[in-house]
Design a protein that fits this description.
Elements (H helix, E strand, L loop, with lengths): L2 H31 L5 H48 L9 H14 L6 E9 L1 H8 L1 H18 L5 E6 L2 E7 L3 H18 L11 E9 L6 H17 L5 E6 L7
Parallel strand pairs: 4-5
Antiparallel strand pairs: 1-3, 1-4, 2-3
C-alpha cells in the first residue's frame, strides 16, 4: 500500500471514530435538553456529552498531528527518490538522464538567441588507474574530478557524470572564449588533483571537447555528436588537451 493510501485509510478510521463520539455527545445532549431522563440521569447524560466532545477533540488533534507527520514522511521519501534519480551517488553530479533533459531544454531557449556552450570531459588513463591501483582509487579520483568541475564552473552551470569516466558541463549564456577558459581551468585542475592516492605519479588527466552552440535550430544529437568529435580530437592530439567545435543544424531540437 502506498504512503498516500495508508494516510487515507488511517485518516478514514480516525474520522469514523470522531463521528461516533460526536453522535454519542449529541444524543446525550438531546436526552438532557428535552427532559427525556430524570434529573440524575440528565446530569449523567451531560457528563457523557462533555466527555465525548472532549474525546472527539483530542482524537481530532491526534488525527491532525498524525496526518502532518505522514505527509512529512511522504515528502521526505519523494525528495529522496528524486535525489536518487537526479544525483550520481558517487560524485554528487547530475545523472546522465537529467543532464540530457537539461541540455534539451537549453536548446529550446536558443530561439531567443541566447548563447550556450557544452563541455564533454573524458578522463585519460582511468582504466589504468583502476587496473593498477584498484577500484577504490578510481572512485576517489572520480570524486576529486567532480569537485574540480564544481569548483571551476559558474553559478547556474550544470555538472553531470554521463557514466564511467565521462563528465559533461552545460554552460548557459557562455561564449566560446569563456567556455575555452573554463575548460582550460578544468583541464589544469584535473591534472593537478587527479593523482591516485598513495600510488606515486599514477593518475588521470582530462581530454575536453568544447561545443559552442550557435543560436539556431539544433537537434540534441547534433550537439552531442559535435562535442564527441571535439573530445576525440583532444584525445588524438595527445590527451590532456582542449579542443572545440561548432554545432550547427537545421532541425528544431527534440
Amino acid at each position: 500500500m502506498s504512503i498516500l493510501a495508508t494516510i487515507k485509510d488511517h485518516s478514514g478510521r480516525i474520522y469514523r471514530g470522531i463521528q461516533a463520539l460526536l453522535v454519542v455527545s449529541i444524543a446525550a445532549i438531546g436526552l438532557a435538553a428535552f427532559g427525556l431522563t430524570e434529573n440524575a440521569s440528565r446530569a449523567t447524560a451531560l457528563a457523557i456529552s462533555a466527555t465525548s466532545t472532549c474525546l472527539a477533540l483530542l482524537v481530532l488533534m491526534y488525527m491532525r498531528a498524525s496526518v502532518v507527520q505522514s505527509l512529512q514522511s511522504a515528502a521526505a521519501a519523494e525528495a529522496e527518490k528524486h535525489r536518487f534519480l537526479t544525483v550520481d551517488a558517487m560524485t554528487g553530479a547530475m545523472t546522465r538522464r537529467y543532464f540530457i533533459e537539461a541540455l534539451r531544454g537549453r536548446l529550446g531557449t536558443l530561439r531567443n538567441k541566447r548563447e550556450a556552450s557544452l563541455l564533454l570531459i573524458d578522463l585519460d588513463h582511468f582504466k589504468q588507474v583502476n587496473d593498477r591501483a584498484g577500484h577504490a582509487a578510481g572512485d576517489a579520483i572520480l570524486h576529486k574530478v567532480a569537485n574540480v568541475l564544481s569548483a571551476g564552473v559558474r553559478g547556474g552551470d550544470t555538472v553531470a557524470r554521463l557514466g564511467g569516466d565521462e563528465f559533461a558541463v552545460l554552460l548557459p549564456g557562455c561564449s566560446l572564449d569563456q567556455a575555452l577558459r573554463i575548460a582550460e581551468q578544468i583541464r589544469a585542475g584535473v591534472e593537478r588533483e587527479g593523482l591516485a592516492p598513495d600510488h606515486g605519479g599514477l593518475g588521470v588527466t582530462a581530454s575536453i571537447g568544447v561545443v559552442q552552440v550557435d543560436p539556431g535550430h539544433l537537434t540534441l544529437a547534433e550537439v552531442l555528436d559535435a562535442a564527441d568529435k571535439a573530445c576525440y580530437e583532444a584525445k588524438h592530439a595527445g590527451r590532456n588537451a582542449v579542443r572545440h567545435a561548432p554545432a550547427k543544424g537545421k532541425a528544431l531540437a527534440n
